[in-house]
Amino acid sequence: MSKLTTCWRYVLVLSIVFTFSGCQSTDTKLTRLSGWSSNPVEEKLVAGVLADFHREKPAVNFKYEPIPGNYTEKIQLMLGTHTAPDVFYLRGETAPSYMRFNVLEPLNQYAADTTFRIDDFYPALLKSFQKGDTLYGVPKDFNPYVLFYNKAMFGEAGLTHPPQNWKELEAFSRRMTKDTNGDGKPDQYGLVLEPTIEMIMAFVYQNGGDFQKEDGTLGILDKNFLDALEYYVRLYRTGAATIPSDLSAKWNGECFGTKKCAMVISSGWLIPELRTNYNDVDWGVAELPVGRQKATIVFTNAYAMPKESIHKKDGWQIIDYLTSQDGLKSVVKQGLALPPRRSVAQNLGLYNDPVKRVFLQSAEFARTFQTTLPERWYEEASVALQMIYFDNKTPREAMEALNRQIESGILQ
Amino acid sequence: MATVEIRNLVKQYPGAAKAAIPNANLTIDDQSFVVLVGPSGCGKSTLLRMIAGLEEISGGELLIDGQRMNDLSPKDRDIAMVFQNYALYPHMSVYENMAFGLKLRKFSKAEIDNRVRAAADILDMKELLDRKPKAMSGGQRQRVAIGRAIVREPKVFLFDEPLSNLDAKLRVQMRVEIKRLHQRLKATMVYVTHDQVEAMTMGDKIVVLKAGVIQQADSPMNLYNNPANLFVAGFIGSPSMNFGRGTLVAQDKTLRFVNSALDFQIPASLADTLVGQVGKEIIFGFRPESIYDICFPSGKTLTEPQRITIDVTEPIGSETFLYFSLQDQVCCMRTLSDSQYQPNQTIDVGFDTERLYFFDPQTEQRIG
Amino acid sequence: MPQPSTRQRDMITIAWLFLGFPLLLIGLFVFFPIGYSLFISFFDWNLVTNQRTFIGLANYTRLFSDSLFWKSTGNTILYTIGVVPIQTFLALFLAFVMNQKIRGRSFFRAAFYIPAITSSVVTSTLFIALFSKQGLINQLFGLENDWLTNPNTAMLTIMANNIWTTSGYFMVSFLAGLQSIPNSLYEAARIDGASTWQQFWKITVPMVRPVTYFVLVLGLIGCFQVFDQIFIMSAGGPVNSTTTLSYYVYVNGFKYFKLGYAAAAAIVLAVLIFSANQVQNRYFKPEVD
């Protein structure tokens, strides 16, 4: 063989090696913890808490591997390819699917340990990660819908307190919807609503209705559901409220921050936005106005373990620490999240903060919004809402269409 | 009637230091065949394109049949042009290529058909009408290009070096055909070429251009026998005229041309015109056929014999060219093909006194 | 046949070595996934649990009974019919204009081409802003439409986005084609009496036919696969008016976790593209000069 060919054979081998070195290998000796990282501040805090954990329990060998970017997609793929981390963040929205597919480790036996004090958690949060009586995730934080209101605009309109019920919500909103520059179109709205199913469900729950009843059948054509939906839609159609796209805004927080709306239904994620980008707004929070009963929607995340993990004992140690007072206090103190444990909130004096108190009290009557339907139900529900808001269908027509879709079994 | 008149025509490209054509004056008579000839870049194509309307006229006037054409677009000037690379529409058949201009002018189908077939007849292309250009030879394509011009029945035909892309044999053949066409159609034709042989054989009138300036516009024989300046003298004729520098010297009552290689008396016919140049430098020109070996009778009055040494002989068949040097200039002499000259042979030659040309070295104009 | 010499054998080996690596890559990342997609379309495969059950053609029958599948196919075809002709003509027209000697020609050429090489995320975000209720388009024309939330106009907005970005890309192809048309053809046409418009139709268009074919084929294939803009601008809505087949595949595979079903839809899309291309070849392919 000539020298030339030998040389090229080396090149070929090297390039193949080079290509395949890009493949990752997972080290199975360590317990792997993963989550999303929203910002450097939060990452540093988490690293700090994990360092404390390591000091307390040096026997646990673990590795923290945060996932930047599309967290949900990556975790799904990792679960599918049997390379999932031993402990990972579980979103409340995707929990039903994972529970349905039986890929998560049931945690009842671990949580039964009395030192864990499972009843210290706000019940609504635990419910998000329960299927029947089995617990699949330990809540790490939460955010309920509350009502933010612009104190200055309220003052201008002569209103002294945030609306307490649906009637006041509509009346106050109309009062603060004004045409300030005389062009015939309102430039300021009392309320901004998002045409999303979650926000609507807060009202549905307050009216005693439900998307999917206890027995699994759909409740979307029941009077309680439709009345609430019709109230919600009427606010928009009669001009008492607006939606973000009408103001060319990307989300309702922007409408509130730019002072185009006096009230907005939002949650903890709005606060940093107001503090950084819209800090000239004089705002306050209140519990959602009450319908027939108090209710609101809570969004929560948990720590979960995949069923096929081989480090479950160690994984539980991590979860236990991260959800203990020691594990929670630094993140909570920074104001980045609300603790899932009532005792922690009390011990750290959070109930004394007027804003945080509203959130914590809301947790007591909050509900999670989940169904047991196959995943496509969410898209179909969104389409039904789009029919109402963008295709001029009535709420009843849209819900009837949605009902037909779900009943037709097309979701399977 | 289709006369073309060019009055004080100027072509100046924006941003150029000098005008491409500073000032051109020319009259092209009705039904004449006028050739614009000159080396590359002399402005002949530019002039033609200005007549066509493809180049903007910067100054002066262009008249066709007495009407001012400066601002008219090409299609309104009633001209037709044959391009060097034929410019046939590749996606159309020969018939469609020829019919294109007529269709655009909304001629009736019958009329179009008549004209196209008539032109095909004249050019002997009847079988080619359905072919596409890519399926034809260069010569056939050129005929289609000409046919496209014929059907338009324009006032003036313009040819932009149409034969330059053909091989030598075909070129000669097409030359004859174009001349025949001219006789048959009796149309005004303006023809551009860089080949002076082509110019000489085809034109009624030849316009020699150099650097945008018309050097001389005259009949072929006049240009040959009476060039107006050095450039025309050297350009027309192949092999070209031979030149040599020397001084005019007065001796007794005669004038002589003297340089390091030659020394002869100026004939009386020229003496009067040249008398003003005595003592000055002058350029002498003679054509290769105007120099004779004194050993053979020429039937012409020759100057005194001059001695030359032959460098190279070039027998081309019908005659032989002899190359010799005069003052480091290579000169050419025509002689009969059966003459037995050898390189390095010295011979005595004389110039035909009726075919001597003298030029002023500074102005390059002909003075004698 | 005589045995190849050592030198020839070396050359052949070297040739294979050169080819080997790209072939490996293409095989691994193009041919294998295509074949594998066909394979898994016969399975019910959950992305998260990684369980596979063979179900034969069940995915396909389910596909054909889902009204959303038919709507996506219809949307895809409508989108393609809307975008391909306009984008092809616009690209040719722009190239024709850009080929004339006008002032600032280089600037315009760059300006038309830059959208083509700008990230689709950037152009989509730009268009969301332009076509929002208080965006520039409404202001310019005195309208009040929220383009992206109106089921009747959402698709038009996405089509406009793609036409704007892709025309520039194909304009470059046409420019190259135009510049191979000798100028003397246009001069002959001028003398024959053609106006600029007639020159465009009777000379430019026929002579760039090979480029037009190329642009049509690429345009067709690209339009059938449109995804980025829909993902960013409208998420398939409102009321599924902008759900195309590729978006349907994505949603079923990665949101509903039904990989086998999504693969079936993808195979249907591939067959559709292939058929459309065959039709194009049969009726529109220019003869090779």
Automatic annotation (TrEMBL), chain A:
GO biological process assignments: maltodextrin transmembrane transport; maltose transport
Xref: InterPro entries: SBP (IPR006059)
Keywords attached to this entry: Signal, Transport
Signal peptide segment: 1-25
One cellular component term from this protein's GO annotations in UniProt: ATP-binding cassette (ABC) transporter complex, substrate-binding subunit-containing
An example molecular function term from Gene Ontology annotations: maltose binding
A Pfam family assignment: SBP_bac_1
Gene3D superfamilies, alphabetized: Periplasmic binding protein-like II (3.40.190.10)
Domain of life from the UniProt record: Bacteria
Family according to the record: Belongs to the bacterial solute-binding protein 1 family.
Protein name (database record): ABC transporter substrate-binding protein
Species annotation: Spirosoma profusum
Automatic annotation (TrEMBL), chain B:
UniProt KW ATP-binding keyword: yes
GO (cellular component) term, any one: ATP-binding cassette (ABC) transporter complex, substrate-binding subunit-containing
Keywords from the UniProt entry: ATP-binding, Nucleotide-binding, Transport
UniProt record, GO biological process: carbohydrate transport
Alphabetized SMART domains for the sequence: AAA
Key word Transcription regulation present: no
Pfam families: ABC_tran, OB_MalK
CDD domains reported for this sequence: ABC_MalK_N
Residue ranges annotated for the ABC transporter domain, each copy included: 4-236
InterPro entries listed in its UniProt record: AAA+_ATPase, ABC_transporter-like_ATP-bd, ABC_transporter-like_CS, ABC_transpr_MalK-like, ABC_transpr_MalK/UgpC-like, Mo/tungstate-bd_C_term_dom, NA-bd_OB-fold, OB_MalK-like
Transmembrane segments: none
UniProt cross-references to PANTHER family, sorted A to Z: MALTODEXTRIN IMPORT ATP-BINDING PROTEIN MSMX, OSMOPROTECTIVE COMPOUNDS UPTAKE ATP-BINDING PROTEIN GGTA
Name of the molecule in the record: Sn-glycerol-3-phosphate ABC transporter ATP-binding protein UgpC
Organism, as annotated: Spirosoma profusum
From TrEMBL, chain C:
Residues passing through the membrane, by range: 12-36, 77-98, 110-132, 152-176, 211-236, 256-276
Keywords: Cell membrane, Membrane, Transmembrane, Transmembrane helix, Transport
The UniProt record lists the keyword Cell cycle: no
Membrane topology: Multi-pass membrane protein
Pfam families xref list: BPD_transp_1
InterPro entries: ABC_transporter_permease, MetI-like, MetI-like_sf
GO biological process: transmembrane transport
Location in or out of the cell: Cell membrane
Protein name: Sugar ABC transporter permease
Species in which this protein is naturally found: Spirosoma profusum
